[in-house]
């Protein structure tokens, strides 16, 4: 069933890879996936390694181009078919309405956390002064020491880089946010800050599609869990229905 306020509509999504380093065989990652995500909804994607979870996120973000199917983002100007969008138009849309937070930060050389996050805020419509203020607020909220704000991101620890990545993804949040293991490198205190931030997005009307291996995080954040197996959606339901009760 299509939600009343859809932000993302995925239909018949298929993706395969040719294994050139082995013998040229084809590995199918997604077999005709259908999925909807509504405004203010947090959909967590569960399943074992190789189930197709990250492939789904990357096809939505279009770092992977699917073999077949449609990925529609219902943006402010109307529905946009992401699989057919020219690269420049896609880049503009990613800046404004579509965010992606991976486990790893890709920052330009000699660029500090404040500038990385402020650049993301400017892409989402803030002027330079507003963007720096919003970036500082985001970094404070995630507990990144101000002494690190102008340090080259390349010398930060894995957990610090992950917090910068999350701050950039959530500053003036986009309409759709994709999360791929965004708290995997965080210690308990910073994990708690990050989960509180992610949890606040639903109240702002942000649609979240997230991959976590952390069952506690899924139980805490998800309004719906999609369980994948073998590149297909195997089950959909509440966290309690799909994941079971917490131990």
From TrEMBL:
List where this protein forms a coiled coil: none
Q: Can the keyword Cell membrane be found in this entry's annotation?
A: no
A GO MF label: lyase activity
User: What keywords appear on the UniProt entry?
Assistant: ATP-binding, Lyase, Nucleotide-binding
Q: Which organism is it from?
A: Saccharopolyspora cebuensis
Highest taxon of source: Bacteria
* Residue stretches making up the ABC transporter domain: 8-247
Q: What is this protein called?
A: Phosphonate C-P lyase system protein PhnL
Annotated signal peptide: none
Q: Which InterPro entries match?
A: AAA+_ATPase (IPR003593), ABC_transporter-like_ATP-bd (IPR003439), ABC_transporter-like_CS (IPR017871), ABC_transpr_LolD-like (IPR015854), P-loop_NTPase (IPR027417)
């Amino acid at each position: 069933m299509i939600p009343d306020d859809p932000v993302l509509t995925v239909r018949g999504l298929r993706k395969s890879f040719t294994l050139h380093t082995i013998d040229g065989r084809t590995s199918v990652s997604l077999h005709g996936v259908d999925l909807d995500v509504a405004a203010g909804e947090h959909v967590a994607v569960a399943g074992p390694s190789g189930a197709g979870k990250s492939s789904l996120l990357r096809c939505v973000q279009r770092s992977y181009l699917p073999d077949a199917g449609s990925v529609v983002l219902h943006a402010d100007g109307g529905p946009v078919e992401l699989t057919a969008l020219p690269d420049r138009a896609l880049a503009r849309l990613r800046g404004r309405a579509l965010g992606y937070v991976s486990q790893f930060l890709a920052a330009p050389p000699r660029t500090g956390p404040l500038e990385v996050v402020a650049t993301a805020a400017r892409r989402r419509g803030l002027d330079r002064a507003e963007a720096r203020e919003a970036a500082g607020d985001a970094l404070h909220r995630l507990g990144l020491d101000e002494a690190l704000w102008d340090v080259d991101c390349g010398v930060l620890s894995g957990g610090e880089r992950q917090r910068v990545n999350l701050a950039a993804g959530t500053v003036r949040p986009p309409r759709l946010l994709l999360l791929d293991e965004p708290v995997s490198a965080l210690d308990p205190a910073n994990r708690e800050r990050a989960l509180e931030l992610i949890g606040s997005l639903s109240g702002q009307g942000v649609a979240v599609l997230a991959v976590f291996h952390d069952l506690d995080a899924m139980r805490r954040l998800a309004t719906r869990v999609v369980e994948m197996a073998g590149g297909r959606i195997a089950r959909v339901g509440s966290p309690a229905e799909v994941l079971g009760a917490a131990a």
